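Field: sequence (string)
Field: structure_tokens (string)

Example rows 1 and 2, in order.
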Amino acid sequence: MRSRWGAEGRAALALACAMAVCAPPARGADHAPVPVVLAGFVGMPADSASRRDFLAAFQDEFDANELKCERRVGEQWSATGERRNLFRLVDVAAPEDAWALELSIGVPPVVRVTPPKQRASDPTPRARMSDLRVSRGLTIVVAAHPPVQEGDRGEPPPPLKVAVYFPDARRVVVPSPKLPGGAYAYPWADAGRVVARAALEALHRADDSLADDERADLSPAVRTEDTP
């Protein structure tokens, strides 16, 4: 008797394994990330250290599995947590397979600060302050173009335009008659994250993956239209 039931059990196990192999994949696994190619980027910081910080944060945000979002309730926008990020930035892809992204950013003008003269009693050279900015603002324009399909002559989605500022940016030069607003150490890593999220917002919106009352959470930046 034990031998007969053992054989039946083995047959049932084999059938279950075959059904598992033939079964369709789970819902979360049947949608591979959509490739995105960066077709143009205007406004990249010229300073090499600033550019490195910006691009590293930009890429990290695109590599994330989730996108931080907000939802509008009445006149207020509130954080709603994260939703699945459908897009991934790649170096090369066929035009018919990938979205094309064009980005343009505007940052405040550079402030040229003359460091104080080195004194003979100073034990070490003073650190050089580079790439300071007159304010904390940032403007972003994103155009997201869908994959090119044969015979497709449709109009591309309108570009997304966003203006933000960084309330926590540190002012390192106090205001003076020559520089009424002082100067700020511009938060390039935060800017990279914010620009990436704005780009992802444009992509998800153009793909109809965002509702009209949803948008990307751009914190720690604040959208200017949200300022009281």
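Row 2 begins here:
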Amino acid sequence: MTLPPCKPDGIDCTRRYIGCRAECEEYHKWLAIHDEEKEKLRRNKFNPADDFLIEQQSRVKKARHRDYMRGYRK
């Protein structure tokens, strides 16, 4: 991840003051880059196939219970 311009090397920016983020052009550029990086990580994390496999066990369990209850009620 790209580091913010406020502390590039762990040292505060010389132009830093309360409220400077609202006016800082470098910060706004970094914010756009940071949002893209976060979105890319989020897209890589979400995978519909993984969700299907994770939920498969609960679907099988519910189906077995449903079949059991049908046989029990007869």
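free_text_note (row 2): The two ends are 61 Å apart (CA to CA).
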